[in-house]
Amino acid sequence: MKPDDTDENTEKNTVEPDRRRRFLYFCLRRLNPFMKRLLRSRFHRLVSGNILLLTFTGRRSGRRYSTPVSYIRESGTVTFATPRACRWWVNLQGNADVTLLVAGQTLAGQVVVIEDDQDQKTASITRLLQLVPRDAPYYRIAVASDGTPDPDDLAQAAREHIVIRVVLVEAGSGQ
Q: Which residues have a Cβ under 8 Å from the Cβ of 161 and sit 6 or more positions away?
């Protein structure tokens, strides 16, 4: 007896997004070294409008790490999100001090990790998508023609991502 095509397609559809996501992360890991060099170069303007270089210290190793992230900047705060599964964000817990390379300018800041507040994460991801709509596929969020994100996709993205806010420290403020 031949298996029902519907069952086969359902199984494929549940497996396929994981493959696509793994492929996306694979590509991003390969692209990150290039992006780091580009963001540190005089050609940073090609991407630095909404991609920054975050530098932080490992909690256990004490080693410095840098990673490019897509961000928004509003009133003294930089906000971005990262998948919960990408565990580098744990180094930012406890109000970690970080350095940001934003549009060729080095800025200091203190991190606030939003791990469990679903409402706050949903609002932040919504705002991220309003200002950087090209990131919708990264979050796996379908966006309507009027720019409205699908509410179910948005809720799922909030469950799967950590939102990170960096409160910028003004130069000369003594902090």
A: 81, 82, 83, 84, 121, 125, 139
